[in-house]
Design a protein that fits this description.
Strand content of chain A: over 45%
CATH class of one domain in chain B: Mainly Beta
Helix content of chain A: under 10%
Distance between the termini of chain B: 15 Å
Oligomer: heterodimer
Number of helices of chain B: 3
Number of strands of chain B: 9
Structural class of chain B: mainly beta
């Protein structure tokens, strides 16, 4: 299965800027479907970014994050060609992981 | 690339009761050692904080201290959001020693949207997209040097969307 995570990480020499887009319904549990039934909560709870075995960014999310979430941040200490590891886990225990090369 | 399903007008309705149902079903089912790196790298998921119904309760649960408004916390949010399902909001700050950033929407059924942990070496600047049920105050909290700072702004929502 194709990864749910799309990442673009680009370094300008000092700072690495990271943008990630993840495919996930992010159902909050407050929304009803067309039949009036509540759509059960299903959302990513934790998202982490690791570089060189070290955590560089970690998100704790609730159901208030938009569907197919997007996040952007930047960190220091990486160079072009380095790998960035991205993982998420949702409230049902599903996970996905991918790695991206810093460009 | 991020198409929002606008097919269900009924899905826009909120159910205020049953908020507790967001109670993270399945979290307990996580097998041990499934994502050791994740567990080691991240703090425990702040489940209680995500259930709180007011800014004050979120701040108390998450940080246990009070936030002080600061003009060094810069929030970038639209004046008017046409689609409450996708509201782009970002924050940056000139404060030093930032350890975490959190986003709160006062009028959402669960006020806390997200908390980001910022280790040393990571810049105190985060952008994300959030859902807003209706027009509301949006607050960002920045934890820096052991203290808590905040900035707030009202964002008007023309079409609510606490879902997708």
């Amino acid at each position: 299965m194709a990864s749910t995570i799309r990442v673009r990480a680009s370094s300008n020499g000092d700072i690495t800027e990271v943008q990630a887009l993840i495919q996930h319904p992010m159902d909050s549990g407050f929304v009803k479907n067309a039949k009036g039934e509540t759509i059960p909560p299903h959302f990513i709870q934790q998202l982490t970014f690791e570089h060189d075995g070290k955590n560089v960014f970690a998100a704790d999310w609730g159901g208030g994050i938009s569907k197919d979430p997007y996040v952007k941040f930047a960190f220091k200490g990486a160079k072009k060609g380095d790998e960035l590891k991205i993982s998420w886990v949702d409230n049902k225990g599903a996970t996905d992981t991918t790695t991206a090369k810093i460009q | 690339m991020n198409k929002i399903d606008v097919g269900f007008s009924a899905t826009r309705r909120l159910i205020l009761q049953g908020a507790g149902a967001v109670a993270l079903i399945g979290l307990g089912n996580l097998p041990f050692g499934l994502t050791p790196a994740l567990a080691a790298a991240n703090d425990k998921y702040p489940e209680e904080a995500f259930k709180q119904k007011s800014d004050a309760d979120v701040i108390k649960t998450l940080y246990g201290k009070t936030a002080e408004p600061s003009d060094k916390v810069k929030m970038d949010a639209p004046e008017i959001a046409e689609n409450g399902a996708v509201v782009p909001i970002s924050v940056s700050t000139t404060l030093a020693d930032v350890t975490s950033v959190a986003f709160l929407v006062s009028e959402n059924p669960n006020v806390l949207i997200a908390k980001y942990n910022i280790p040393a070496g990571t810049l105190p600047s985060v952008a994300n997209r959030i859902k807003m049920a209706k027009t509301s105050n949006v607050t960002v909290l920045v934890e820096a040097g052991g203290k808590l700072y905040s900035a707030s702004k009202e964002v008007k929502v023309t079409v609510g969307g606490c879902g997708g």
